[in-house]
Design a protein that fits this description.
CATH superfamily of the largest domain in chain A: MetI-like
CATH superfamily of the largest domain in chain B: MetI-like
Structural class of chain B: mainly alpha
Order of helices and strands of chain B: HHEEHHHHHHHHHHH
Largest interface: A-B, 99 and 105 residues
Strand content of chain B: under 5%
Number of domains of chain B: 3
CATH topology of the largest domain in chain B: MetI-like fold
Helix content of chain A: over 70%
Oligomer: heterodimer
CATH topology of the largest domain in chain A: MetI-like fold
Radius of gyration of chain A: 23 Å
Distance between the termini of chain A: 42 Å
Largest sheet of chain A: none
Number of helices of chain A: 15
Chain lengths: 281, 322
């Protein structure tokens, strides 16, 4: 009986591992191939390179139209940092009002927020583009960053509302009795206690801004302000031909490193975020 | 009590909340409500971004431009009395997108549930395995992976490398063959089942062990247990995943854009709805038409969501499984 269970467990582990290996094989292959000479990437499905080179990283890093990937990474990181600050401030403020404060029209506005949660972005994209164009913002980071300061990512408002509602109310009541203002309650009680949800918000804001392509394609119109994802597209020619595969794979590898690090460092916030709101993907 | 003190009282009660809500409210009015109204109006005009002064109200012209070919029309008369050519690619984009959504979403949910059940056992290392299976979802939406996908399914790509090592010959270039190109994108989507898997896994943990024990005492087989316990108790989670994944799949863009190099691929075999919308709006600057396309997309997603919710009355159980 006992050995039977052990064998069954071993087989299950083996099966899960085999399937998992198959799942991540393409990504591992991408990383390994980025170190192969350009002419050996083709039709070499193996993982152990016959020759190792960093040539691809050198040619890929040169970037596009005189702008290097150093600049593209700096641009992406800057946008992500600004987006995170915007979402943390604006979404947490809105969530606090919805979760804790009493006001006229609360149910109405909450329903409106829930509707925007499901709304496909495409019905607003054309007028937003026209609007940002009249502001002279096309070709700058502003169309990517400013909406975050206006809490347009309703997902995070919802996530934070859910989290703040689960905090014990007695704490804010006690603070109010002690003479704390609503702002004081927000800053001294809600924000510190909501840290796990704030980390989740920051994490997903980073990933979505980092990986976003559609908005970057629309608004980041010249190489000096390209993001990493917009710059990777320049490896792919019209109709899809790629000339420098080695460089493309090398820069693709570099581009996924930040997401990777954050994922493994903050895994529990990931699972929390996905399981409570069904975020993306 | 004077009237002013009533107003003061009202303000005192509500002002703080509305100050906290102010950024969101501003965003809602300026970046959601106004754009929606504007885009609805644009959808009835021939607005061209590069020449906005020539904008005219053309009634249902844009909508006829989309669906005209359904009625065998090649030209349509607009409200201004001019004739307009129909869009020869719109219905193709619609059918490509429907094929993509109706294949990738069910397959993704099946894969997610299967792996969730595999991981919902008393095993060591489940958090690690869960992380491994989530990695494709973590990275899958990026341009990097779309570029990689092109490489995998090219004539001399990784997949054909494997297949020829297994003895297959005369292998196609999957990505440029109109018969297979869309299926590489379906596969790319199914590969990213991680989020649904995590949600299923959380749902499976909620099902009490005793139900299965009682069922096996009564002699129910594993298959019977799956259909009589797991599926009914998991049905609210299935509903949630189904709706979210469907909405998400209709809006897929990056993968198709990269794989087709900014176009719809060979014979428009990967012309996703949003890609066609982008090409109309930002390559040809026909933003009135692009707005109309966006509203039809919203309508389609809305109707399908409503249908799923309506049918959920008889396949989703919110009971305790008694």
């Amino acid at each position: 009986m006992k050995t039977g269970t052990a064998v069954r467990h071993a087989l299950t582990h083996l099966f899960i591992l085999a399937l998992g290996t198959l799942m991540i094989y393409p990504i591992v292959w991408m990383v390994v191939s980025s170190f192969k000479p350009n002419n050996m990437i083709f039709s070499d499905p193996g993982l152990i390179p016959k020759a190792v080179t960093i040539e691809n990283y050198i040619t890929g890093w040169r970037g596009y139209a005189g702008t290097t990937f150093g600049k593209f990474f700096a641009n992406s990181l800057f946008m992500c940092a600004a987006a995170i600050i915007g979402n943390l401030i604006a979404c947490t403020m809105a969530a606090y009002a919805f979760a804790r404060l009493k006001f006229v029209g609360k149910n109405f506005w909450f329903a409106v927020m829930m509707v925007t949660l499901m709304l496909p972005g495409h019905v607003t994209i054309v007028p937003r583009y026209i609007l940002f164009n009249t502001f002279g913002w096309v070709g700058t980071f502003l169309p990517i960053i400013v909406p975050k300061f206006l809490a347009t990512d309703a997902f995070f408002v919802f996530l934070l509302v859910q989290f703040i509602r689960s905090l014990p109310k007695e704490l804010d009541e006690a603070a109010i009795i002690d003479g704390c203002s609503k702002l004081g309650v927000f800053l001294r009680i809600i924000v510190p206690l909501a840290t796990p949800a704030l980390v989740t918000t920051a994490l997903f804001t980073f990933l979505w801004t980092w990986d976003d392509f559609f908005n970057h394609l629309l608004y980041l119109t010249s190489p000096p302000i390209f993001s990493v994802s917009r710059a990777l597209r320049t490896f792919v020619g019209d109709a899809g031909a790629v000339s420098n595969w080695g460089g493309a794979l090398a820069m693709s590898t570099l581009s996924v490193i930040p997401s990777f690090i954050l994922f493994f460092a903050l895994q529990k916030y990931f699972v929390q975020g996905i399981a409570t709101t069904g975020i993306k993907g | 009590m004077s009237e002013t003190s009533g107003i003061v009282k009202f303000l005192r009660r509500n002002a703080a909340a509305y100050i906290f809500l102010a950024p969101w409210l501003l965003g809602f009015f300026v970046l959601t409500l106004y754009p929606m109204a504007y885009s609805l109006w644009l959808s009835f005009t021939n607005y061209v971004f590069t020449n906005p002064d020539a904008t005219q109200w053309i009634g249902l012209g844009n909508y006829l431009k989309m669906f005209g070919p359904l009625f065998g029309l090649s030209e349509i008369a607009t409200a201004t009395g001019e004739t307009m050519r129909v869009d020869p690619y719109y219905l193709k984009a619609l059918s490509v997108t429907f094929t993509y959504v109706f294949t990738s979403v069910p397959l993704k949910l099946v894969a997610a549930l299967a792996v969730a059940m595999l991981l919902n056992q008393k095993l060591r290392g489940v958090p690690f395995y869960r992380a491994v299976y989530y990695i494709p979802t973590l990275l899958g939406g990026s341009v990097a992976i779309a570029v990689l996908w092109r490489k995998l399914f090219e004539k001399d790509g990784l997949v054909n490398g494997f297949l020829s090592a297994l003895g297959f010959t005369d292998l196609p270039s999957w990505i440029t063959n109109p018969r297979y190109a869309l299926w590489t994108l379906v596969l790319l989507s199914v590969w990213q089942f991680g989020s649904s898997m995590i949600i299923f896994l959380a749902g499976l943990k909620q099902i009490p062990e005793e139900y299965y024990e009682a069922a096996s005492v009564d002699g129910a087989t594993r298959v019977r247990q799956f259909f009589s316990i797991t599926i009914p108790l998991l049905s609210p989670v299935i509903l949630f995943n189904l709706v979210m994944q469907m909405i998400y799949a209709f809006q897929a863009f990056t993968q198709a854009y990269i794989i087709g190099g900014g176009r719809g691929g060979v014979l428009n075999s990967t012309l996703f709805y949003t890609l066609h919308l982008y090409i109309q709006g930002w390559t040809y600057y026909e933003m009135g038409y692009a707005s109309a396309m966006a509203w039809v997309l919203l309508f389609i997603i809305g109707v399908l969501t409503a249908i799923i919710f309506k049918t959920s009355d008889w396949w989703v159980s919110y009971g305790t499984g008694e």
